[in-house]
Amino acid sequence: xxxxxxxxxxxxxxxxxxxxxxxxxxxxxxxxxxxxxxxxxxxxxxxxxxxxxxxxxxxxxxxxxxxxxxxxxxxxxxxxxxxxxxxxxxxxxxxxxxxxxxxxxxxxxxxxxxxxxxxxxxxxxxxxxxxxxxxxxxxxxxxxxxxxxxxxxxxxxxxxxxxxxxxxxxxxxxxxxxxxxxxxxxxxxxxxxxxxxxxxxxxxxxxxxxxxxxxxxxxxxxxxxxxxxxxxxxxxxxxxxxxxxxxxxxxxxxxxxxxxxxxxxxxxxxxxxxxxxxxxxxxxxxxxxxxxxxxxxxxxxxxxxxxxxxxxxxxxxxxxxxxxxxxxxxxxxxxxxxxxxxxxxxxxxxxxxxxxxxxxxxxxxx
Length: 366
Ligand code: ATP
Description:
Radius of gyration: 24 Å
Order of helices and strands: EEEHEEEHHHEHEHEEHHEEEEEEEEEE
Helix content: 10-25%
Low-confidence stretches: 360-366
Largest sheet: 6 strands, mixed
Distance between the termini: 21 Å
Bound molecules: adenosine-5'-triphosphate
């Protein structure tokens, strides 16, 4: 079942509106791959094209090196789980899981044996005779996964499958799905607009914006080395400053703006005189104490406006002289932090990134 998936120059135009610009994407067999992006960016369309529910305007879909363009969804080595799950309400859990096998001519005995095997895999063997409405949301989710895996797909496509669950269950199901994917070795392609979900579950992430994949990379690469301003802003939080580039040196650039003069690592396309953004993560922005000790050489004065406790972390919300909101993500380790009033904050140049204001989409890596 070592079958890689490839989109080659896939495009989708609906009535003159380009939902997917020419896209190349290669997903090796056995990868947990997330497609992450805001609502309407084309995620579902891309997945529907891959699994055969949508015919693209252009380009090709290859699985295991072979074009599957001519095959309808039910003849492709893919399975798809929709947000609604679409379980059959009058069938038992076991019958739901066995359903796809009947259409493939598998004998009843074998169907039951296979369904029970899959129910054991998702830890639902004790619930085989129940109907879907007698299960919890998380259990229904697992039935949908077992049903999709029954037909032994090379690729399982999941379209925001956890969005209907409450936060706690969603977090639990993240690790369940991830572990199931690793145990079965089936390629999972997982659509989400939730960056936390994508970062925790994926081997690699495609970050999509307005019909284009702007970056493909590991969670670490996407988070620590965003290729575009969109990726930097969409994946995780950023404190953002704007200004004109007044110095460019090796991998660093300095910007001069209303909030102050700051230095950060730069993307290769930053040029002297450009309007640029400087972004730094809240967890890389710190406090500078009265003696001037503390985070980094970039410094500014800000007023503390409030604090938000997030269990192990504390978000200190501040505002600089220009009215810009700057958040510090501090460890909740018992340290005493300023409650209100002016304070000096700072960050290291190597923790900040400078990019041109104009978004220049980066071609997706194959
Ligand atoms: P969401 O997270 O909200 O589901 P998405 O990223 O999955 O969004 P798509 O469903 O792929 O986005 O839609 C991408 C764009 O294409 C949207 O602007 C949508 O309105 C448009 N679109 C999708 N399907 C059709 C269709 N059948 N006819 C016309 N436009 C469509």
